Amino acid sequence: MIEIIDLTKRYGKFTALDSLNLKIEKGTVFGFVGQNGAGKSTTFSILSTLLAPTAGTAFVNGYNVQKEAKMVRRQIGYMPDFFGVYDQLKANEYLHFYGASYGIPLSEREKLIPQLLDLVNLTHKRDAYVDLLSRGMKQRLCLARSLIHDPEVLILDEPASGLDPRARIEMREILKELKEMGKTILISSHILPELAEMCDRIGIIDQGKLVAEGGVAEIQAQLKGEKVITVMLAGHAENAIAFFEDEPLVARLQYQPESHTIEFTFKGTDQEQVELLRSAIKYGLAIRSFAEAQVDLEDIFMEITKGVELS
Amino acid sequence: MKHFVINPVLNKEFKLRFRSFKSFLGLLFYLLALAILIIGFVFIESLTSSQGFFKPEQSRMMFMMLSILQLILILFITPGLTAGVISSERERQTLNIMLTTAQSSASIVLSKLISSISYLMLLIIASLPLYSFVFLYGGISPIQVLTTVVYYSFTILAFGSLGVLFSTLIRKTIVSMVTTYAVTLFLVGGTAFLTLISLQFGQGYYHMSSSGTPPTTPYAYFMAMLNPVIVLAGSFEPEIHDEIHRITGIKTPLWVSYVISYTIIFVGAILLSIKKLRPNMKKG
User: Fold this and answer.
1) B38 is in which domain, residue-wise?
2) How many structural domains is chain B composed of?
3) Which chain B residue is nearest to residue A146, measuring alpha carbons?
4) In terms of CATH architecture, what is A224-294?
5) Are A29 and A202 within 8 A, CB to CB?
6) Where is each ABC transporter domain found (chain A) (predicted)?
């Protein structure tokens, strides 16, 4: 379980984190979304006891990151967004080194490491020098490293960044397995659809503030009650466009001639949506379908962060 | 103790250092340089000697020369081996991961120091057979050789701790390296220069004095006690220390002050490195 209370981090006049509050229950996979510099890595660094907050505090499994940093380190498995490896160590030795760093006895490590290598599909690379592994393999090895002491909480900063599609899928499969193992996972990623698929909840951070938090559907609801409605037409588009544009609750209307559809945002209630459809039919519009569009995470993110392009 | 001997950082560092071919090349060239010096010295002395043989006094001279030369080599190599131990991990982006493990800061700092200076110790131990040359010609007791090795070890620890400190405090290895070399240069060259200047002034006062007890100036002593070369040279040639004691009026043996001052530097540097390795989480 992770609890963040009024967490603030300032670097001189720049505020990287601004009174961040967040609670992540045990066993939750929480996706942290934000542009570069939004405060994701700062939050992760504080939770990993690598950075002291300016104000506020955070708890990992009930341990205070400031007062009980040693205990926090035993609870977490941390994978930074950028990390290096030792060029003269083999994959097997790399894991032994970190296992020993957590005080795991050699006999136990001998049993554990093959299992971890198997989990991340690197058994065949156990005797390969770490620096000779591909980027995706290094990422997977680093994930295995973060699991060596069987932490309850995983803090994964962009674990799939820089990976090719195949490696990304492999990483996603491993994370699914970890989710099934009941780990609490805090993960950040730019690959938003993947986050939506993997995460139970997501939080959108912008300029150090948590601007939205919840399930994908919940966040959608937080978007000022707006819905995106797609209308497939059977008749003339001009009449339909004119009709919907006159409606006060309709905004940002777009017509797509290829699919002969109209898409617009609707700010009304469910009842008002029913009334809109009824009026359209009464008006004589030939409508093949009238449905709420599925808004994906990227759309939500772009909307919440005012359309700033993802980096 | 067992925990320290099987310390993971120490194990990993040994593995990384001794798997590198560069380490063996370094050892080879170090021993070659020493061997050339010893053989060259014996050869030249034998040539210039009218009797055509190598005398015990010459052997003693060779031991002194070799010891001071080896000390200078050590002082030159130590910053290079220690000034990047933490900052290079930071640059390689492996430090953060290490800091999130359960290892204590003290364990990381001490293991880093010991692993880096262990290479220097290897150089010294490997050079001992070359040192045994002097026994062939006499003039030197085994206890003198042993004392010199202990002195080297202490000096390596002290100067190595400075390298680790700067490596912890300074983010960039190159800046840490330059700073450590600058401080080492001051503690070797700077203090020697200041000792000489202070001795010159002291001599002046000494001769100008008309009263029964000549005035003394302690500055030369304070500079000399920080200088590893003067302390070592004085242990071979006690006249050097006698002259410093006479001019400065301080009778405490220089090596005692050397051990005390560098123990303080060592402990201070290590404690500060341990404190600064991880952020102070209680203070934002």
Assistant:
1) 2-277
2) 1
3) B97
4) 2-Layer Sandwich (3.30)
5) no
6) 2-232
**Distance, in angstroms, between B232 CA and closest chain A CA?**
38
Cα–Cα dist A189/A184, whole Å: 16
Q: Does B278 touch chain A (CB under 8 A)?
A: yes
A85 secondary structure, DSSP code? -
Which among A82, A88, A97 is the nearest to B8, CB-wise?
A: A97
Q: Do A80 and B20 touch (CB under 8 A)?
A: no
* Disruptive mutation site among A83, A89, A101 for chain B (greatest number of B CBs within 10 Å): A101
ipTM strictly over 0.85?
Answer: no
Q: How far apart are CA B66 and CA B59, in angstroms?
A: 10
What CATH topology corresponds to A2-215? Rossmann fold (3.40.50)
pLDDT in tens, B271-280: 999 999 998 8
Residue B113 located in a structural domain: yes
Main-chain phi, psi angles of A269, to 5 degrees: -80, 180
Both tokens of B227, joined, read 């200088």
Nearest CA to CA, how far is A153 from chain B (Å)?
Answer: 13
Q: Give the A-side interface with B, CB within 8 Å.
A: 9, 45, 48-55, 65-67, 69-70, 73-74, 76, 78, 80, 82-89, 93, 97-98, 100-103, 142, 145, 149
Q: Which residue of A has its CA nearest to B12?
A: A97
Digitized pLDDT (tens) for each residue of chain A, 311 residues in all: 899 999 999 998 899 999 999 999 988 999 988 888 888 999 999 999 999 999 999 999 999 999 999 999 999 999 998 888 888 889 999 999 999 999 999 999 999 999 999 988 899 999 999 999 988 889 889 999 999 999 999 999 988 877 778 877 888 888 888 888 889 999 987 666 667 777 888 888 888 888 888 887 677 666 556 778 889 998 788 889 999 999 988 888 888 888 889 988 888 888 888 999 999 999 888 999 998 876 666 666 766 666 444 43
Distance in angstroms (rounded) separating the CA atoms of residues A104 and A97? 10
Give residue B185's Cα distance to chain centre: 12
Residue B33 forms part of a structural domain:
yes
Give the tokens for residue B13: 């560092």
Give CA separation, A301 vs A212, A216, A228, A293, B43, in Å. 9, 10, 15, 16, 81
Residue B172 inside a domain? The answer is yes
Helices and strands in chain A, H and E counts = 11, 14
Could you tell me the residue ranges of all domains in chain A? 2-215, 224-294
Pairwise CB contact (< 8 Å): B94 & A53: no
Q: Is B6 on the interface with A (CB under 8 A)?
A: yes
| B170 within a domain of the structure (yes/no) | yes
Q: How far is A154 from chain B (nearest CA, A)?
A: 12
